[in-house]
């Protein structure tokens, strides 16, 4: 039996043909997922609109709204093992990642934004009119479509859902068709927590569901995480429908700069974590390594050694360090780009092939001798593929910054050095939403996350997400009237 849709407080079957969800570690179907029809998408949006105006939601006191978010966080904790196993089975990530990053991360987001509910303040402005009070209010935007990706389905849903609900919005959730299951379970827990009917709606689907939401005239704001190509389609659909507000977290191609004074062992460990977490299926993954020529050989050798000792395996196997890629389609995408890298002359140091086992596993791969013009430096691979380039030393800092910035993306970057001036100059010069000095790209709910350039619009997490889900209203009060 297929999973169900959740519309206006009811669990219902999708009217379109259900689709298969695969266990990527086995390459076999393990669940059927309901597919919403176009009419059901309309019903979900209508339910969210009605709930937005309902006193059951609108008139809740901030402390009451916060209590619902705290309750949801507690329910996630109570079901942590079940959620982690489900995420691992559906997405492929090692169980420890599901536990610590996905499930604990999701619960922490609901707690963090529950804390914000009672602290969403406006301001007063000293306008130049006599007898006039001017103040601002932050109001919820209205109906929000949340279109979430397949790399961290549960956690990224929490990035969007927690601030949306904290600010008093209503939502229609549309998970990636590749990984819908943890979203279905989270919505069950939200219903159990007691959110009023219509506040949280879920439409699973693939093929047109996302497009229906992006073109919908009664969606006020859409938050999307995924490819830049779809991000562009969404901006077009917004422009051609109702100019809905957009928050877009799109592709990345993070540079990693390793200076001559870096602790190479620490840099290798940090870059392996930053480049291969979730098998490289991370928008902020470190992918192109610019190493000072004096340390290049040592870095490549140690990186390749680290990569080749990593244990590939099903996420549910506790010894596994690298899980499968999420789907056969994505495995083919990674394989194609690795072949392009070889054809363009990158030196394959280790890996480079689909692993010889069931499921969608790709060998972790290191390319050396990579040139700036190569496709592996520019295209988002979103897999376990690390490309090493080099640079000439401290005098090259300006050109190094230019090379790091020679990309359409600007989500994240990293610098490895003991010299504070080098770190600061690079952090200032690189055009990216986050620069990590001597550490992997670890998000935190208190810190903004998002990109420059084609990596997106707006910021998630931190206080910035409160802005993403609110409108600012200016109230002018003439008390001399
Ligand atoms: N930034 C990140 O975290 C992520 C980046 N990626 C990158 O994206 C690449 C391609 O991944 P892919 O699996 O194709 O997924 P995409 O990221 O391209 O997005 C697929 C999602 O977008 C929705 N969608 C498609 N068209 C529209 C539209 N016009 N309006 C609104 N939503 C739409 C789909 O829903 P529907 O079919 O129902 O319309 C589905 O939910 C990956 O190789 C990777 O590089 C992928 C995942 C996460
Ligand atoms: C160490 C945890 C890394 C989590 C990265 C979250 C990724 C987000 C994205 O790809 O959009």
Automatic annotation (TrEMBL):
Gene3D superfamilies, per the entry: Aldehyde Dehydrogenase, Chain A, domain 1 (3.40.605.10), Aldehyde Dehydrogenase, Chain A, domain 2 (3.40.309.10)
Lineage: Bacteria, Bacillati, Actinomycetota, Actinomycetes, Micrococcales
Domain of life where this protein originates: Bacteria
The protein, known as: Betaine-aldehyde dehydrogenase
Pfam families per UniProt: Aldedh
Gene Ontology MF terms: oxidoreductase activity, acting on the aldehyde or oxo group of donors, NAD or NADP as acceptor
Active site: 249
Protein keywords: Oxidoreductase
Organism: Psychromicrobium lacuslunae
Domain Aldehyde dehydrogenase: 11-475
Homology family: Belongs to the aldehyde dehydrogenase family.
Protein's UniProt keywords contain Oxidoreductase: yes
InterPro entries reported for this sequence: Ald_DH/histidinol_DH (IPR016161), Ald_DH_C (IPR016163), Ald_DH_CS_CYS (IPR016160), Ald_DH_CS_GLU (IPR029510), Ald_DH_N (IPR016162), Aldehyde_DH_dom (IPR015590)
